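Researcher: Structure prediction, please.
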Amino acid sequence: MDYLHFKNAGLLGILSLTRAHKVFRNDLETQFELFEKKYKRPFTLDAEETLDEFAYTDQPGIFLVKDTGLYLMAAAKMDKLPDDMSHVCYAEGYSPDKPDWWEKCHAISGDDFGITFPFNQELQELVEQGCDIVVEVTEENFKLKTFKPR
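Model: Predicted structure follows.
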């Protein structure tokens, strides 16, 4: 089991962006699930219908992303991503400016991925109060937890 630690200082930008927006992106897996629920069949590339109607939600979320590093990212629908990178918070030790970032990320998953966690009012308030986020990584899933550093 691995733990990904996201420090509060980096989470505050995500919190600010989340609170400033009303529309949030769904990850692709969620879009597939919503499509299947509505149409009672899996999505296929040759489907007459598109995923467009399932791309957005009014429920705040944060993405856990593994590509060039491993990070949490604001799911807010933004016309332009902030130049200051305030929409991203890298897990401790998983930023591409660390010498062993690729090996550490590859140990979590050989593939790139993006999954969504709810960023509900309770979690937003915990971040506002100074809590960090920890994601517990097992072979089966990812679990988001919070803790207040001393």
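Model: The chain has a mean pLDDT of 94.
Researcher: Thanks, that helps.
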